[in-house]
Design goal:
The structure is a homodimer. Chain A is α/β, with parallel strands linked by helices. Chain A is about 45% helix and about 15% strand. Chain A has 7 helices and 5 strands; from the N terminus they run E-H-E-H-H-E-H-E-H-H-E-H. Chain A has a 5-stranded parallel beta sheet, sandwiched between helices. The longest helix of chain A has 19 residues. The first copy, chain A, starts with a strand and ends in an 8-residue tail after the last helix. Chains A and B meet through helix 3 of A and helix 3 of B.
């Protein structure tokens, strides 16, 4: 029916990872796929409790999500992840362990994110009030060669969704009839 | 082909969880099942790094393994776990979250384990040198109503393997033809 693979969203807070990943998840569920979305709350509660924001802890978190995605993917399940996953090396380690790995880079300039600032976090971070805020007071290393780059400052979400969907078909990961 | 379920081994250190779970795992792999064995080393490296032996940390570990088993089982994969999982309430919480949950209680008296003492740990624990050693200096709450109890002090491993295998068939979890 479909392959097992990891659909790995990466990008800054507010860049649209959750929104887009949820749309793809719903669409896959409707199509009858075996799919899991490993997003913020569930991961924090069940996998990452006790971890903080140091490089080591962030890496542990990402590698742990990667481990679970690997178990799912190698058993024919689609694992969608939507963690910031700021470090390139760690993402690449996860990639190397998972047979089919599709990295979606949610690219949005800090200036746009700070202007939207849905959760009011960028204002605080830019004022120096949040010590480990990715993209402001903590590094974000963008993917060099992601399977897809989404410019979420300009692209409509429905268009991004279609591009991801088409990519999965083009790569033979989901049936063309979907 | 087969159902998704959790095959949950529980019992003291040295009671035979790893040995029996590995035999069942191999047999399922040979039969062509989608199956994962979540045993010691892999779990410690990938899921439980940083956790200790307090009740809270042990519970976190068991619930985390349970979460991964749940993700696998609900996608049609067989998840075999072989952690001590000493607390009844925690095992029961995991059970309640997973549709198909088969608990195998590896039952072996401390006296026998201390005599075998493959890793030399019981001697140390009984001498008071290991502060949180399950069954000696830390509690183990046996299952009240497990799907299967294995007396690993007297039963041959090949017999135990057959009993587990038959149980999975009896419950309709794997095909009768296996």
């Amino acid at each position: 029916m479909h392959k097992g693979f990891a659909l790995w969203f990466t990008g800054l807070s507010g860049s649209g990872k959750s929104t887009l990943s949820e749309r793809i998840h719903k669409r896959l569920v409707r199509a009858g796929a075996r799919v899991e979305l490993l997003d913020g709350d569930e991961v924090r509660t069940h996998l990452s409790k006790g971890l903080g924001f140091s490089k080591e802890d962030r890496d542990t978190n990402v590698r742990r999500i990667g481990f679970v995605a690997e178990l799912l993917a190698r058993n024919g399940v689609i694992a969608i992840t939507a963690a910031i996953s700021p470090y390139k090396e760690t993402r690449d380690i996860v990639r190397s362990r998972i047979g089919e790995f599709v990295e979606i880079f949610m690219d949005c300039p800090i200036s746009v994110l700070a202007e939207r600032d849905v959760k009011g976090l960028y204002k605080k971070a830019l004022a120096g009030e949040i010590p480990h805020f990715t993209g402001v007071s903590d590094p974000y290393e963008p993917p060099v060669n992601p399977e897809l780059r989404v410019d979420s400052s300009s692209e409509k979400i429905a268009v991004s969704e279609e591009r991801v969907w088409q990519l999965l078909k083009d790569r033979g990961l989901i049936p063309l009839s979907w």
